[in-house]
Each structure stands twice: as C-alpha cells, then as structure tokens.
Specification:
The protein has two domains: 173 residues, Rossmann fold, CATH 3.40.50; 110 residues, Orthogonal Bundle (6-phosphogluconate dehydrogenase C-terminal fold), CATH 1.10.3660. Helices cover 53% and strands 13% of the residues. It is built from twelve helices and nine strands. It has a six-stranded parallel beta sheet with strand order 3-2-1-4-5-6, with helices on both faces. A three-stranded mixed beta sheet has the order 7-8-9, with helices on one face. Helix 4 links the parallel strand 4 and strand 5. Helix 4 runs parallel beside helix 5 and helix 7 packs across helix 11. It is elongated and about 70 Å long. The structure holds NADP nicotinamide-adenine-dinucleotide phosphate (NAP). The site of NADP nicotinamide-adenine-dinucleotide phosphate has 28 residues, from helix 1, strand 7 and helix 10. NADP nicotinamide-adenine-dinucleotide phosphate (NAP) binds next to helix 1, strand 7 and helix 10.
Length: 291
C-alpha cells in the first residue's frame, strides 16, 4: 500500500497508473506534477489525481513513491530538479521506453539516492496520448520490465514490483542493455516502419487514391503511426545504436525480398512468407515462436 504517490507527467501512462492503483485500493493519495496547468486541472476533474502541485519540491514532499511518466527526452532535466527536492527515502521509478539513457541520467542526478531508483517500463499503451485516454485496466495481464542496477536497493525494487502487481501486471526483470536491444526490435522498429510507410504514402502523387483504396492491411500496419511524435523522437535518439542495428537488419532483409522479386524467385518469397505466417499465427499462443 502506498500512502503518498507522486506522478510526474499525468498523461496516458501516468494517468493509467493512477487510475489502476486507485481502482485496486493500493494508494491513499495521488499527487500530480507536470508541465501544463490545464492538463493537471483536467486530471483532477477526471478524478485521476487527488491534487496537483506546481512546485516539484512540494509535489514530492513526504511522498513514499515517485513515478516519472514524462517523455524520455526530458527525464534528465526532471531528474536534475528531483535530486535536491527529495528530502526523504522515497522510492523513485520511471516508465520510460528506453532504459540505458534514463539510468545514466538518474545516476548523475540522484547521487547517493540512486540506490532508491528502480528503472521500469510497462509493455502497455496505445497510439493515443494524454490523461483523457488513460485507462484503469491498461496494465491488466501485461508485462512490466524492471531493470535494477547492481547497486539498486532490493527493498526499493520489491516495492516497485508490488506496485505494478497491484495493477494486474506481470513483472519481469531484464538488464538495461538487454531491454534496449530487445525493445529496439519488438517496439521501436515497428514504429519506424509505420511512420515511414504512412509518410511515404501521404507524399505520394496518388495519395488520395491510395488512401481511398486502403483496407485492413494498411490500417493495421500504420495504426501506431498515430503515436506522439515527440515521444518517438526521444526514443529514437535515446536508443540510437540498438535501433540503427535493427533498422540495418530490416533493410538487409527488405533488400533480399526486393532481389527475389526482381529475379522472379518465388521460392524465396514463399519460404520467407511461410516462416513469417507460422511465427505470426503462433504469436498469440506462446512467446518462444521459432521460425
Ligand atoms: P503522454 O500521454 O504524452 O504524457 C506525457 C506527460 O508528460 C504529459 O502529462 C506531459 O504534460 C508531461 N510532460 C511532457 N514534457 C514534460 C516536461 N518537460 N516536464 C514535465 N512534464 C512533461 O505520454 P505517455 O504515452 O504517457 O508517455 C510517457 C512515458 O511513458 C514516456 O517516457 C514513454 O516512453 C513511456 N511509455 C509510453 C507508452 C505508450 O504506449 N504511450 C508505453 C510504455 C511507456 P503536458 O500535458 O503538459 O504536455
């Protein structure tokens, strides 16, 4: 049970966490801190938070848990302000989609308090943004990755684990390097493909006709191109090396498909499509699909 929870950034993920913990009866009081007063007022009106604070120092005073739920690109700035503002032994965690850069920022900003920082990432969300889109059941049955460092306090990690379990999530641990390498392929790469495809089509001379003739395939493939551009700019820049490696591999594989089409190599096309079809069909049943 959390007595005072402070969430920095009451958007889709911060708002959903607040709703989920309130629905579970796991938190006594939720304080919101963020950039725009209008958003914080909306969060109070919606009943997502109990009250908003305009000063970070006031927001985290007496908090036993502080959650950073802002875009990855502004974590360093906020952690820099948070370090001196923390006056008690609050546990600090984050929900950022990249772990290495956030951990480096936290290590630099929090000093001795870094041991109470537990890096986290819920594998849940939608292409929408903002508190109005937040949902109490967002994390139900979903995974949350925690990436504690060797010096992270075990008690702090346990408290963050219990918080996420109260939302209905399954908590797993993964090193930050493994997290960033794996998420580059499972999440960051698909967003690049969706953005790139959608942008290619809207810049096409025949874009009206193409969109009029689009059906489920195009819509399914580009759904995540509606995601927030600032959030995804930050993720690309923060996970540059792993994302570039994934993009290069995809580029090579796309090149192989292009060559097969050029040469009329139907065998290679069929082999590729068959491997992918069986792996995709098995995806909903188990995670360890083998092509
Ligand atoms: P969001 O809906 O846009 O919410 C972000 C919140 O952060 C907003 O309340 C925003 O305030 C606030 N904010 C932005 N810049 C700020 C700044 N400089 N100082 C203080 N507050 C600031 O975004 P989200 O989808 O919840 O994403 C939040 C974090 O969750 C990101 O780190 C993202 O990588 C991670 N994440 C997202 C998903 C997903 O599917 N969306 C899934 C897992 C993890 P304003 O309203 O004033 O702009």
């Amino acid at each position: 049970m959390i007595n005072k929870l402070t969430i920095i950034g009451i958007g889709l993920i911060g708002g959903s966490l607040a709703r989920a913990l309130r629905a579970a009866g796991y938190v006594h009081e939720i304080i919101g801190y963020g950039r725009s007063v209008g958003n914080l007022e909306q969060a109070v009106e919606l009943g997502v938070i109990d009250r908003a604070e305009v000063s970070l120092t006031d927001a985290v005073r007496h908090a036993d848990m502080v959650v950073l739920a802002v875009p990855v690109g502004c974590m360093a700035e906020i952690l820099g302000e948070l370090g001196p503002a923390l006056t008690n032994r609050a546990v600090v965690t984050d929900v950022g989609s990249v772990k290495g850069s956030v951990i480096a920022a936290a290590r630099g900003a929090l000093g001795a308090r870094f041991v109470h920082f537990v890096p986290g990432h819920p594998l849940a969300g939608t292409e929408q943004s903002g508190v109005a889109a937040s949902q109490a059941d967002m994390f139900q049955g979903r995974r949350v990755i925690l990436s504690p460092e060797p010096e992270t306090d075990a008690e702090a990690t346990a408290r963050v684990r219990e918080m996420w379990e109260a939302t209905g999530a399954e908590v797993v641990t993964l090193s930050a390097a493994d997290h960033d390498r794996i998420l580059a392929v499972s999440s960051h790469l698909p967003h690049m493909l969706a953005y790139c495809l959608m942008d290619m089509v809207v810049r096409h001379d025949d874009h009206r006709a193409i969109l009029e003739c689009s059906a489920g395939g195009f819509r399914d493939t580009t759904r995540i191109a509606a995601s927030d551009p600032v959030m995804w700019r930050d993720i690309c820049l923060a996970n540059r090396d792993a994302l570039l490696a994934a993009l290069r591999q995809y580029q090579d594989d796309l090149g192989a498909l292009m060559a097969a089409i050029e040469k009329g190599d139907g065998k290679l096309l069929c082999e590729t499509f068959n491997r992918a079809k069986h792996a995709r069909a098995a995806l909903n049943k188990k995670y360890d699909v083998q092509a």
